[in-house]
Amino acid sequence: MKGEGDSLDFGERDYDPRIGRFWSIDRLQSKYPWMSPYSFVANNPIMNREIDGRDWTITTVKDDKGNTTIKMTLDVAVVNTSRNKTLDMHCLADAVKNQVQTSYSMTYKNDDGTTTTVEATVNARVLNDINELADNEHLVQVVNPGQHGVGRGYGIAPLNGKRVYLNEKYVDGIINGDDDNTVPHELGHTAGLKHADMPQHMEFNDAMNGQSFTPCTPCVENNVNNAMYTAKNPRLGGGTYLDDKKSVEINPSQIKVMVKNYDEGKLNKETKGQ
């Protein structure tokens, strides 16, 4: 706001309250051809929030009965910079979308009897060149083993960051449905989720808010198919390896961590770590 009655800066575009409209069109207009490019929050300010270019977007709304709806939206682009040019990147984009939406969408009961519904939406596209990446997108990049910290493992992602690196050796498994774990797992790191079986990597508050499952045996048993174990290849030793196909679940405590991280401005950082 420059002064009383002047424009409001929404990050991606400016709003003029004197005429009740934006000066410029939404740069994501091509994704929503059925709406006016000058519209605000799809004309539904109760359920939606104007995005200011952040990749993870999380909105929480309660109804008059105390039930909660959490809407998570992720814009992501996939690109192949590995030597393996036979990979079908459009199929990978579809797998990223479907796997994340499945793992992060849920409905659960709260202690007070109310219900929380989590709706995860992923917008995924394929890049021909990494330089085509938009500012508001996460990047899922297929790389050669040994690049960007990817050794013999399936993939890696910086905590709270915007990039996921996948080992090209295992991408076919993601595409054909043999591996439904790696993408939700690594994108979980970008949302601030840590390895549930590595308390030594956590702060005290992480253990208290439900991120750590060990050494609590019932916690492990109640989360046997959780996506956020270390998922190391058993042939390499270490970690709590479960099942590439079944270890796909995110629990309510982890959803709360994601919401908290988003509200505190911790997500969508160009960080190096994890």
What do you see in this structure?
- Helices cover 20% and strands 20% of the residues.
- It has 274 residues and is of the alpha/beta class.
- The strands form 2 sheets. Strands 4, 5, 6, 7, 8, 9 and 10 form a 7-stranded mixed β-sheet that branches. The protein has a 3-stranded antiparallel β-sheet with strand order 1-2-3, with no helix packed on it.
- The model is unreliable at 233-237 (pLDDT under 50).
Provide a concise account of the structure shown.
Helix content is 20%, strand content 20%.
Question: Could you list some keywords that capture this structure?
Answer:
10 strands, 2 domains, globular, Collagenase (Catalytic Domain), alpha/beta, 274 residues, 6 helices, seven-stranded mixed sheet, 20% strand, three-stranded antiparallel sheet
Annotation field: number of helices: 6
Shape: globular
If you compute it from the alpha carbons, what radius of gyration comes out, rounded to the nearest whole angstrom? 20 Å
What is the strand tally? 10
N-to-C span:
38 Å
Query: Would you give the CATH topology of the largest domain?
Result: Collagenase (Catalytic Domain)
Largest sheet: 7 strands, mixed
Q: Helical content, roughly?
A: 10-25%
Low-confidence stretches: 233-237
Structural class per helix/strand content?
alpha/beta
Strand proportion, as a percent range, falls in: 15-25%
As for the number of domains, it is 2
Mean pLDDT: 84
| H and E order | EEEEEHEEEEEHHHHH
- CATH uppermost class of the largest domain: Alpha Beta
Known CATH architecture of the largest domain: 3-Layer(aba) Sandwich
